[in-house]
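User: structure tokens for this one?
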Amino acid sequence: MGQWKPAAAIFGRILDEVPGHVDAAAGMAIASANASSMPTLNRNDPCPCGSGRRFKNCHGPLGASVRPNTTPDSADVQQLKQALALHQQGDSTGAEALYRSVLAVQPKHALAQHFLGVIHYQRQELAAALPLLEKSVSASPDEPEFRNNLGLALAAADRESDAIAAFRSALALRPDHAVAWNNLGLALQSINDVRGAVDAFRRAIDLKPDFAHAHWNLSLALLLDGQFAQGWREYDWRLVLAELGCGRHVYPGQAWDGTAPAGKTLLLYAEQGLGDALQFARYATLLARAGARPLIHCVDALKPLLATVPGVTKALGSDEPLPDYDAHFPLLSLPRIFATTPETIPSQTSYITLSEPHRAAARARIDSMEGSFNVGLAWAGSKAHSNDRNRSCPLVALAPLLVLPDIAWYSLQHGEASKDLDAFADAEHVVPLPESASLVDTAALIAELDLVISVDTSIAHLAGALGRRCWLLLPFAPDWRWMLDRDDTPWYPAMRLFRQSRLHDWSSVVARVAANLRALPAMK
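Assistant:
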């Protein structure tokens, strides 16, 4: 996961969630901006930032630099107060109408411009958001929150250098701005300045020790840099975040403290995406070797696969009643328990097995196509993933691969992206994955292919867990687990990494993959 998460707030950019908002990153844009940039209020009124303190003792002094030149009960101030209240409640349509009403009278009103820009940012309408946010910064150059929020929009628009400059300018005005330090860290990590990112996250934590998102972001940067010991400790901060730690509140009984596993029945619960569960399921084997009886609670699609991991006593689907157990534990915290380093990753050749009937059905399907070299292809992850625009690759960018001779191509693509095949002429010979295919069916097909080529999604982890040869296509700033400056990974011995050498550049990646395909012995 790591990297930019503008829609889910999992990787930071935010400090406070605004009630009523699913989009907590957007919530931050409102909360942090209005906290220091509210319209003129009575000095003894409660501060609109929600602190409970009077405005004069909270954000009154800071807001002075950007207050409109009006009286406390003027129409535009009242409209702005109403708009901000609606905005915070999640009624962006009502808020937008009021912001526009203010701008109709005062076209250069900095606050109305800014928060209208925030609404467009929340809707991912960046072409509309950026001019408004930039105008508000020009109108109120001493307001750090405006610069911080502009940085968020610039980052979402993939203008990394400009985003870094915006965050640095916010920090020049307010060096104790923990959220801006966190945002700067994310921007630096997006250009692979990992050491700079680590420093920025630590500055944020120094200023606010309980800043859970900054701790989480620090963990990902440390792991990306290979600093596993501290990285795993910080990684547990995800459990404090509502977005990632909800699982621990579901299970009755006590959490395992990581000691004396022998003789205990431990309920391990899968977290985050399918790929995360597939990657970390291997640790159940280590627990079994230590004398525990590990159970894995997971989504139904994974149940038949994780049940085959050596040492797993039982895999349980989402809605199955839970058996008796001694303690529960998050699956993704096991690397910390086992003090995993890059050198000690339990990298079994394969740890998921399939029934012979499943493999035979897949084999018969492949044999019917009479391909000389059979390659599976996955080009897109879930659109719900907030870094999808970077980690997924447009199918059209893979055209140089699809025209290579003597290769039979099989789609491994589930979901909406599978329809890309219908709109791309060069893909007409790619064998589609049946809509009814289960994850087990997909795994069986992978097990019978000669090679899998995939972007960073669960298909790559499935191929790795099966011990199949996989070529992984990575964006310039990769997820933490692939680290940097290497074309292999200790997580999956049969996997090879093909990285972007420049931001957003898939063409060079595809060119290298094509050259390596042509060089394979089977292709000569």
